[in-house]
C-alpha cells in the first residue's frame, strides 16, 4: 500500500514539474527594441557640412586632447579624488547589488528554523488528561518556495535591474565627462586671467609714470590740471581693473580646489600664449551620440528600465504558479527529535489568478505605460539637447576663431595709434586727451583679445564634452 502511494506522489509531482516547464514558453513580455530616432538625429548638428565620419572627437582620449602637463596632472587628480566621482561610484556599487538581486530572481527562497514549544494544558480537558497536563514539541523545519517564470515576469524584472545598473554606470561616466570639462575650463580661465593681470599691471605702471610726468609738466606750466586729473583717473581705473582680476583669480583657484577635493590654495600653471588644442574636431554622425554621450546612454537605459517594468506590470494580469515545499524533524520527545521516524515533508503547488484587487493591477499597468512614455520623451529630449550643445559649441568655435583675427587687428591698430599720437603730441599736432583716449581703448582691446582667445579654447572643450568625450 505504501509503495502504491509513493508511486502516485511521484507521478503527480512529475506531472506538476512537466507542467511548469511547459508553461515557461508562454512568455507574454516583449523584447526591447530601440525606437526609431531618424527624425531626432537628422541634421541634428545644424551644419551645412553633413558629418559622415564613423569616428568622432569623443573617441580620442582626454590625454591626447589636453597636452598641458599641469592640466593633465590636475585632471588625473580630479578623476581620483573628486567627491562627485566618488558619490557616483557608490551609486554604481548600489546598482550592482540590485542587479545581483535581480539575477537571483530565478532561484528559490529557502528558510530554516528550529522551535521548542511547551504548553500547560488543563488537566480536565481531553488533551490535558492524555498528556498529563503538559505538552512539549520539538521542531526543526526548512521551507522552500519557487515561482515559475511562466510569463517572463522574473526575466523582465532582471532586465530592469540590469538597465538600472547600466544607468548608474552611464551616470558615473557623465560625471567624469563633466569633471574633465570643468577642470579644463577653470584652468584655461586662470591662464586668461593671468594674461589679463600681466597686461593690467604693465598698464598700471605706465599710467603711474604718466601721472608723475604730467604733474611735472603741469608744474612747469606746459600742461593743465585737467590733463593731470585725466591721468590720475586712468591710473585709478587700471588699478580697479587689476583688483577685479586678482579677485577672479582667487575665486577660480578656489573653484579648482573644490574640483580636486583639496583645500583652497595656489596652483602652478602654464601661460595662455602656448595653449593650443590640435585634435581634429571630427563630429561623427549624430547617431554616435547614442554610444558616446553618457547622459544620452543613461536616458536610454532609463527608458529600457521603464519598458521592462511595464512588462512586469503586464504579467500581473496572468496567473502565477508557485511551488512550495517544507520538511524537517518533528517530535514530542527531545531524545527522538532527530530520529528517522521524526522526519516529515510537504509539497504544495499553487496557481494564483488575480480576479478582483481594487483595480490595483490595472492601475499599476497604466501607470507603468505612462512612465515608459515619459522615459521615451526624456530620452528624445536628451538627444536633442545633446545635438544643440554640439551645434552651439561648433558655431562658437568658428565665430571666436574669426573674431580673434579682428581682435588682434584692433590691438595692433591701437598700438600704432598710440605711437603716432605720442609723436604728434611731441610735435604739437595732437592733444594729450587724444593720447589718453587711445591708451584707454588699447587696454580694453588687449583684455577683449584675451577673452576671445579663452572663448576659442573653451568652445573646443565644450565640443569635446558635447560629443561625449572624456570618459573613455
From TrEMBL:
<dbReference type="InterPro" id="IPR003423">
    <property type="entry name" value="OMP_efflux"/>
</dbReference>
<keyword id="KW-0812">Transmembrane</keyword>
<comment type="similarity">
    <text>Belongs to the outer membrane factor (OMF) (TC 1.B.17) family.</text>
</comment>
<dbReference type="InterPro" id="IPR010131">
    <property type="entry name" value="MdtP/NodT-like"/>
</dbReference>
<keyword id="KW-0564">Palmitate</keyword>
<dbReference type="GO" id="GO:0005886">
    <property type="term" value="C:plasma membrane"/>
</dbReference>
<dbReference type="Pfam" id="PF02321">
    <property type="entry name" value="OEP"/>
</dbReference>
<keyword id="KW-0472">Membrane</keyword>
<dbReference type="GO" id="GO:0015562">
    <property type="term" value="F:efflux transmembrane transporter activity"/>
</dbReference>
<keyword id="KW-1134">Transmembrane beta strand</keyword>
<protein>
    <submittedName>
        <fullName>NodT family efflux transporter outer membrane factor (OMF) lipoprotein</fullName>
    </submittedName>
</protein>
<keyword id="KW-0449">Lipoprotein</keyword>
Amino acid at each position: 500500500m505504501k509503495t502504491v502511494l509513493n508511486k502516485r506522489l511521484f507521478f503527480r509531482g512529475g506531472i506538476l514539474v512537466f507542467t511548469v516547464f511547459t508553461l515557461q514558453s508562454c512568455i507574454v513580455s516583449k523584447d526591447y527594441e530601440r525606437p526609431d530616432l531618424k527624425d531626432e538625429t537628422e541634421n541634428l548638428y545644424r551644419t551645412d557640412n553633413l558629418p559622415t565620419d564613423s569616428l568622432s572627437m569623443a573617441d580620442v582620449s582626454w590625454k591626447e586632447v589636453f597636452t598641458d602637463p599641469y592640466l593633465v596632472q590636475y585632471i588625473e587628480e580630479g578623476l581620483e579624488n573628486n567627491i562627485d566621482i566618488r558619490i557616483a561610484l557608490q551609486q554604481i556599487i548600489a546598482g550592482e547589488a540590485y542587479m545581483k538581486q535581480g539575477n537571483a530572481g530565478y532561484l528559490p527562497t529557502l528558510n530554516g528554523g528550529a522551535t521548542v514549544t511547551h504548553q500547560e494544558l488543563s488537566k480536565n480537558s481531553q488533551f490535558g488528561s492524555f498528556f498529563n497536563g503538559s505538552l512539549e514539541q520539538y521542531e526543526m523545519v526548512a521551507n522552500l518556495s519557487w515561482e515559475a517564470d511562466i510569463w517572463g515576469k522574473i526575466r523582465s524584472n532582471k532586465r530592469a535591474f540590469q538597465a538600472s545598473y547600466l544607468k548608474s554606470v552611464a551616470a558615473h561616466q557623465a560625471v567624469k565627462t563633466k569633471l574633465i570639462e570643468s577642470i579644463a575650463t577653470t584652468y584655461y580661465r586662470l591662464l586668461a586671467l593671468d594674461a589679463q593681470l600681466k597686461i593690467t599691471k604693465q598698464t598700471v605702471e605706465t599710467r603711474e609714470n604718466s601721472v608723475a610726468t604730467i604733474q611735472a609738466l603741469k608744474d612747469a606750466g606746459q600742461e593743465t590740471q585737467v590733463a593731470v586729473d585725466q591721468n590720475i583717473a586712468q591710473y585709478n581705473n587700471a588699478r580697479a581693473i587689476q583688483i577685479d582680476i586678482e579677485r577672479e583669480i582667487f575665486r577660480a583657484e578656489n573653484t579648482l580646489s573644490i574640483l580636486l577635493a583639496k583645500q583652497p590654495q595656489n596652483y602652478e600653471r602654464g601661460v595662455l600664449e602656448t595653449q593650443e588644442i590640435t585634435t581634429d574636431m571630427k563630429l561623427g554622425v549624430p547617431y554616435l551620440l547614442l554610444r558616446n554621450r553618457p547622459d544620452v546612454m543613461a536616458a536610454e537605459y532609463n527608458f529600457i528600465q521603464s519598458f521592462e517594468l511595464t512588462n512586469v506590470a503586464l504579467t500581473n494580469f496572468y496567473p502565477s504558479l508557485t511551488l512550495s515545499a517544507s520538511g524537517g524533524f518533528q517530535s514530542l520527545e527531545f531524545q527522538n527529535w532527530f530520529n528517522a521516524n521524526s522526519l516529515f515533508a510537504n509539497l504544495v503547488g499553487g496557481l494564483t489568478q488575480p480576479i478582483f484587487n481594487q483595480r490595483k493591477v490595472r492601475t499599476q499597468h497604466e501607470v507603468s505605460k505612462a512612465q515608459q512614455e515619459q522615459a521615451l520623451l526624456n530620452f528624445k529630449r536628451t538627444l536633442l539637447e545633446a545635438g544643440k550643445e554640439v551645434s552651439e559649441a561648433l558655431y562658437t568655435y568658428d565665430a571666436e576663431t574669426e573674431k580673434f583675427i579682428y581682435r588682434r587687428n584692433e590691438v595692433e591698430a591701437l598700438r600704432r595709434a598710440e605711437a603716432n599720437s605720442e609723436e604728434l603730441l611731441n610735435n604739437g599736432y595732437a592733444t594729450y586727451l587724444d593720447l589718453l583716449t587711445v591708451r584707454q581703448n588699447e587696454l580694453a582691446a588687449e583684455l577683449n583679445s584675451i577673452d576671445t582667445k579663452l572663448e576659442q579654447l573653451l568652445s573646443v572643450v565644450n565640443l569635446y564634452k558635447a560629443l561625449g568625450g572624456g570618459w573613455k
